[in-house]
Automatic annotation (TrEMBL):
SUPFAM superfamilies in UniProt: Cytochrome P450
Pfam families cross-referenced by the UniProt entry: p450
Region of interest: Disordered: 1-20
Name by which UniProt lists this protein: Cytochrome P450
Family assignment from sequence similarity: Belongs to the cytochrome P450 family.
Entry keyword set: Heme, Iron, Metal-binding, Monooxygenase, Oxidoreductase
Top-level taxonomic group: Bacteria
Amino acid sequence: MSDRPTLSTSDRESTRDPYTSLAALRDQAPLSRVVVDGLPVWLVTRYDEAVRILSDPRMSNDGLRYAGPEAHTVAWTGVTTAGVQAHLLRVDPPDHTRLRRLVSKVFTPRRVAALEPRIRTTARELIAALPAGDARADLLAAYAGPLPVEVIAELFGVPTPRLGEFRYWTDRYAGASESEGELQAEASRRLATILGDLIRRRREELADATLDVEHEGTLLDGLIKARDHDDRLDERELITMAFLLLATGYETTVNLIANGLLVLMSAPGRLARLVADPGLVPVAIEEILRVESPVKTVTPRYATEDIQVGDALIAAGDAVLVHHGAVNRDPAKFADADVYDLQHSGSHLAFGHGVHYCLGAPLARLEARVALEELLAARPHMELAVPVDIIEWRHSRIIRGVRALPVRLGRAS
Ligand code: HEM
């Protein structure tokens, strides 16, 4: 293993610019045998191979398929799911098909679209709380951070008295770095308790109710009532599903909004163009997802048999990891791939591909659109308060996101 190149996600340079070393790997081969943060994997850096790997049914999401040391499996499957059983991202068809079908019945485009007024109101409240005049503010703490947690609380119907607690632990859960396993485990226990209480209460309240799960009640109500023929989620599965939606839906969206604002303020004219033509915001969001993918890597795939991909022979039990940030900058797929350019088509892999394609993509897009529309309308002259290369990035294998987003707000519109 020691002859493999190593890739760190936690030193300052590679968090500031992960792309240069990934491009060097990509130039050599579509898949490279590397050690990422001490864990040996095949890292996929080219677009076409990422699509192949993510659509190959011989590639499993089940950590038990991994042939490496148990310590690695624990590291991969992570403290993030402490106390929570196997969920969508960790299971293969047919179990995956069953769980995904149940949640898809409830997490419908219609239910997502219905959240728009609430998202807009929350965005406006956060904007109203920003300092007046041309002051400095950290838009991660003051805007991008708080917005998604309110949306998730709304989705779940977290009652007002528990909102403070819910916000606090969601924030601790997401804010804990991967080395702060204890804090994250504590936060995930607290959140599982809050969600468990909520589910039990709503279950009793809804016991005799019939619910059109596509249209009525909160997402959580829908999950409680969802049925697929005789199938439904049991209580443990419900908590796991709710927890997964929280874990996957929060930080990712925070960082889509924050990365978006950063990308727009990092070069002259980008923000002004959207201010002049807000209709371009959805296209800009796709380009932000491509050029600063908020999720760098997520769940490894484990080969269930020997698989040849180009020159690479992936042995049964090997771990394979797609780097979404790297494949989205593959020059074989996108001309001038490192450059933000609204001409690039939206076919990025920021939300993954195949059966595990992000379930929350419509919600993430909606939140980011409303967040940008509202802030750009209110603060069209904002600009970064520090040079872009001074911005500090989080040390994370999973998330591409800043530690703070200092801006000068400019005069209000
Ligand atoms: C899956 C990215 C927002 C829920 C995924 C995957 C990616 C991803 C790359 C695939 C993982 C894999 O194949 O191993 C993102 C990004 C987001 C975002 C970049 C925001 C910018 C959300 C939101 C939710 C969500 C808002 C829900 C509220 C999920 C779930 C899965 C998933 C449940 C697992 C689906 C499955 O295994 O079938 N996401 N996500 N995501 N995402 Fe998202």
